Amino acid sequence: MTPNELRKHCEQQIALVPGQKTTVEIGLCMRGSWGKRGVKRLWPGGPNGKIVAETGPNEVMVFFNARDVLDALAAVEGRNEEKDA
């Protein structure tokens, strides 16, 4: 999934919840295993998500807060723009 696809997915989920007062989460299947803490990062230094299930060998289902993901994407893009300048 590209950053733009991830952003679109987050925005679609947020749009489904009127008022924005509840936590909006997105679920992603990711490579990895269920560790002792039950959390996984979307990317190194990125937002933490809660592992909810093992979906296959070396694959887990992880739920992330959609707003945290959007904020992290914006921060990464900001850093990339600074490097290009």
Structure description:
- Helices cover 38% and strands 31% of the residues.
- By secondary structure, it is an alpha+beta fold.
- The chain has one domain.
- A hairpin with a 2-residue loop joins strand 3 and strand 4 (59-65).
- The radius of gyration is 14 Å and the shape is globular.
- The two termini are 26 Å apart.
Please bin the fraction of helical residues. Answer: 25-40%
**Tally of DSSP β-strands:** 4
Order of helices and strands: HEEEEH
* Relative strand content: 25-35%
Rg estimate, integer Å: 14 Å
**How many separate structural domains?**
1
User: What is the terminal separation in angstroms?
Assistant: 26 Å
Sheet with the most strands, sense and barrel status: 4 strands, antiparallel
Notable traits:
85 residues; alpha+beta; four-stranded antiparallel β-sheet; 2 helices; 38% helix; globular
Summarize the structure.
By secondary structure, the protein is α+β, with helices and mostly antiparallel strands. It has helices at residues 3-15, 66-84; strands spanning 25-31, 39-41, 48-56, 59-65. Strands 1-4-3-2 form a four-stranded antiparallel sheet.
Layout of strands and helices, then pairs:
Layout: H1 3-15, E1 25-31, E2 39-41, E3 48-56, E4 59-65, H2 66-84
Antiparallel strand pairs: 1-4, 2-3, 3-4
